[in-house]
Amino acid sequence: MGLVAHRIEQAREQRGAALMGVLNVTPDSFYDGGRYLDLDAAVEHVDQLLRDGADIIDIGGESSRPRAEPVSAREQIARVEGAVRAAVARGALVSIDTTSPEVADFALSLGAALVNDVSCLADTELARVAARHHAVLILMHARGSMQQMAGFSRYPEAAYGDVTSDVLDEWRSARDRALTAGLDKDAVWLDPGIGFAKNARQSLSLLSNLERFSGEGVPVVVGASRKSFINAVDQAPPEHRLGGSLAASLLAVEKGASVVRVHDVSEMRQALAVAHAIRHGAPLSAAARPAEVPHA
Predict the structure, then answer these.
(1) What is the pLDDT of residues 34-77, one digit of tens each?
(2) Are 269 and 19 in contact, with CB atoms under 8 Å apart?
(3) Catalytic residue among 79, 227, 241, 269
(4) One-character DSSP codes across 77-138
(5) Is 255 annotated as catalytic?
(6) Which of 5, 51, 193, 208 is 20 to 30 A from 256 in CA distance terms?
(7) Which domains, from first to last, does the chain contain?
(8) Which of 143, 212, 241, 261 is catalytic?
(9) pTM for this structure?
(10) Tens of pLDDT, residues 107-134
(11) Ramachandran area for residue 285 (φ above 0: left; ψ -120 to 50: alpha; else beta)
């Protein structure tokens, strides 16, 4: 926990937020499904994410897109093992993206330090596993499984009263179960779950009111990258949503997010660095300083 907190705080001081780079070792993820199923491709992407400036590498073997088929723990482990081993060997902070206690236990035993749970703790055993390994548990707000989601940014308008208040209340309930299972409060991070059991308007409202989540006193993680709420603002398929992803992530950091989960680490790192320099007058890198004019 200490190392994780230190690295996140260090990244925030340098550029305003830590970068969580996505590595989906799946055939069916909504944006990059199938690209990294081959071990060599997955390991090369680990290296690329680190070169681009990722502070955390989030590795998952089961798609969380709407109506995705469930993947057994055995198959998830087979998919993620090589990438987790490679990332840990390179000294990376590794997050295992899973709702399965068995998969989490396996990845944490290899050296992963975080568990990214997109189910809002549907299985409390996941918290017990994280506690045994002294790992961080990122609890993302959701309602129901991936199989139950109707579609991208499809959710009834009347499903929430005030979406921010309702998400906070439901997240706190899951957080309390995690604490009862043995985790310390500072080891349970908050993700409002952009796009999960939310329509586009609800996702935008959460981003607009994100500062309300900072009151929980734990890091806030936001995953807006390439998601379908962007399409509701400016119609574009996932491969053409980089601009919207950067805008949403920058706003999230302005409103208190500690970690942004992104596919495009290099572009997001640069956007954060420039925004941070504008706000705080950060020193220019050596390559960016104007050349000195020699005296005559």
Answers:
(1) 788 899 999 999 999 999 999 999 999 998 877 778 999 999 99
(2) yes
(3) 227
(4) HHHHHHHHHHHHHTT-EEEEE-S-HHHHHHHHHHT--EEEETTSSSSTHHHHHHHHTT-EEE
(5) no
(6) 51
(7) 2-288 (3.20.20.20)
(8) 261
(9) 0.92
(10) 999 999 999 999 999 999 999 999 999 9
(11) beta
